[in-house]
């Protein structure tokens, strides 16, 4: 028991010793704290650089540095460097604001400081202007964009966002990236002198009336040597079968400027030879509307009597077209009657008539190797079937004469088309018609067999009565009728 007590006493005295020591230490610490406090000692963060910094997008970020120290006054300026922990991160691949927190512990407290880091795109996009090798802008079209590219370090391809402004002497290209950095590029536009228009052919053209006029055109070359000829427009036109003076104005405009040049075209009459009246009593046998199935027979009869006649041909029976060639080779005159013999088509307009006429000319050319200047109007120049188009025959006679074509009518109608259906009737009409006349142009149709059959008797009668049979020529009597329309 006593031992226990002793022990207890011993224990009690040890404990009080420890307590004393603890109290002493506490006192010491308190004194130190008081001393430090009195010293004004505190923790100070030292950041290298500003507490708010901006880092370019995409660049590596290196913390510029920081430290934490304790500093005081009373016991000198000695510093105690404290370990610092950094929390937070900066991702320079993502634009934004980041916060770094620096923390240190001192005594019983925790101290921290912050740094704000802005990751920002500070680099403007780049605009690349492309050029096309050898390209020269032309005056008509103006500058045609050769191409451009816009690239941004952050946003990538910005080509589609480029704003392009065409000014008088240059083009400005602008683009901004998503951070508002703007790029500007500029392309200087070369000035292009307006084209010169150079007339091909004469400035004052005098040409013979014909069915076709081919405009020789102009050449247009701008100051950069670009050929703009196909951009030229022509004002005015030439009706090549109508006599007169025409003006053609060639113009080229690019919207802002117009250049032009003018040509005068004079359509002159193609002179026809004066009519020569034969001295002897003459009958001109003429056959319309062929060739046809009886033309061969007719040519046989004419050859038999060595009589030359005139054929006003059509394109109505193409299977007998070669009879035209035969007639021509046998010395007969080939002239145009019509291709279609369709009154309502050919007399509907001058152009219709000319189209038909020219097509018939092609048949003549095919069979004879040349065109003819001689023709006969379907229905004759006195026809009234064309009255649906008032004045058409009057106009056609003038324009055809202008072009050097001579039309022929007839004095004696054999009546084989209307009224007479017999050979005897045709013979009677022709012989009675020619009787008492010095010159007779006779109308027959070689597409009528009874009319062809009358030819031999007419020749015999004519020869017996002192007539000469001839083919019409360009200067032969024209037998013109009185024009009724
Ligand atoms: Zn006819």
Overview in brief:
This protein is α/β, with parallel strands linked by helices and 485 residues long.
Work out the count of structural domains: 4
Shape: rod-shaped
For the biggest sheet, the summary is: 6 strands, parallel
Proportion of residues in β-strands: 25-35%
| Total beta strand runs | 27
Hetero groups bound?
zinc ion
Radius of gyration, Cα only, in angstroms?
Answer: 57 Å
Characterise the protein shown here:
The protein is rod-shaped. It has 485 residues and is α/β, with parallel strands linked by helices. Strand 11 (163-166) and strand 12 form a beta hairpin. It has four domains: 42-120, Immunoglobulins (Immunoglobulin-like); 126-188, Immunoglobulin-like; 196-268, Immunoglobulin-like, CATH 2.60.40.10; 282-470, TIM Barrel, CATH 3.20.20.370. The chain has helices at 2-39, 295-305, 322-329, 343-346, 350-368, 392-402, 423-434, 449-452, 455-464; strands spanning 42-47, 52-56, 66-71, 80-82, 85-87, 96-106, 109-120, 126-129, 148-152, 156-157, 163-166, 170-176, 182-188, 196-199, 204-208, 218-221, 233-235, 244-253, 258-268, 282-288, 310-313, 333-336, 374-375, 406-407, 412-413, 439-445, 468-469. Mean pLDDT is 92; it is low at 1-9. It has nine helices and 27 strands. The longest helix has 38 residues, at 2-39. Strands 20, 21, 22, 25, 26 and 27 form a six-stranded parallel β-sheet that branches. The protein has a four-stranded mixed β-sheet with strand order 2-7-6-5, with no helix packed on it. A four-stranded mixed β-sheet has the order 15-19-18-17, with no helix packed on it. Helix 3 (322-329) crosses helix 5 (350-368). The structure holds zinc ion. Zinc ion binds at residues 288-289, 337, 341, 378.
